[in-house]
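ok new one. same drill as before - structure tokens go in, u give me an amino acid for every spot. 104 of them this time. try not to just spam alanines like last time pls lmao
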């Protein structure tokens, strides 16, 4: 009987995960930048304290600005969900590769 050998996945798999992670970070950075630019463009604020400090309230904001901000928030939620799925599938893929390596 052969001894159990635990090893990392192929180098190509690690490279693919690194590239995917970099793309996810770049996408997240763009979404957050886009959200902040939308806030600045339409004079929208993130917290009640910011609204109070600006001397305006949410009801004074334009409908278009609120719609655009909601679109950015939905995009962020979708990206977060996709990131969670990506991480879970990556962990499953690495775990299944390690399991296969152990039995070979």
């Amino acid at each position: 009987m052969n001894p159990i050998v635990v090893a990392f996945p192929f180098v190509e798999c690690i490279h693919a995960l690194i590239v995917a992670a970099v793309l996810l970070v770049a996408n997240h950075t763009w979404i957050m930048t886009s959200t902040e630019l939308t806030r600045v463009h339409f004079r929208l604020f993130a917290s009640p304290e910011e609204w109070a400090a600006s001397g305006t309230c949410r009801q004074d904001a334009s409908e278009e600005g609120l719609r655009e901000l909601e679109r950015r928030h939905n995009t962020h939620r979708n990206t977060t969900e996709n990131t969670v799925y990506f991480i879970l599938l990556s962990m499953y893929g690495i775990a299944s590769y390690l399991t296969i390596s152990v039995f070979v």
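DSSP finds three helices and no strands in the chain. and btw Residues 6 and 99 are 8 Å apart (CA to CA).
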